Amino acid sequence: MKFGDIFKHSFLQGFSGQDIGTTQIIIALAVTCIISLYIFFVYRAVTRKTFYSKNFNISLSAVAVITAAIILTIQSSLVVSLGMVGALSIVRFRTAVKEPMDLAFMFWSISIGIMCGAGMTEVAIISSLVITLMIVVLEFIPVGKAPCCKYGKLR
Question: Where are the domains of the chain?
């Protein structure tokens, strides 16, 4: 037996995959749906009227569930996970993010999908509550005015 054979055997043994039951899939997707609806309502409540997009808000919920489904699929097989990485690497988003908070909500939604798909629902719930608290608290902190400039000099 050569070193390469040992490495291949131990590598493949570490990624043998696990059987995911239907109940586990349903629970993970249901929890993801509930948390993504929570994100939907938080986004609606926090976003200013001029920047609010219902389509973007709906896509936040969809992205969370899709991400959870991808993570559940990747857990089952090394071959499927490598295929997913290859397939998803060609996806490009060309739309510029106009509001920085939209980007934060998109990362929040993706991370919830990853956490729930990996079976870490407690982390997803606690982090969602902490993020909501942080957004609400930071929204009420007054912003100081910057010094007004005249002809390139500070007053």
Answer: 28-139
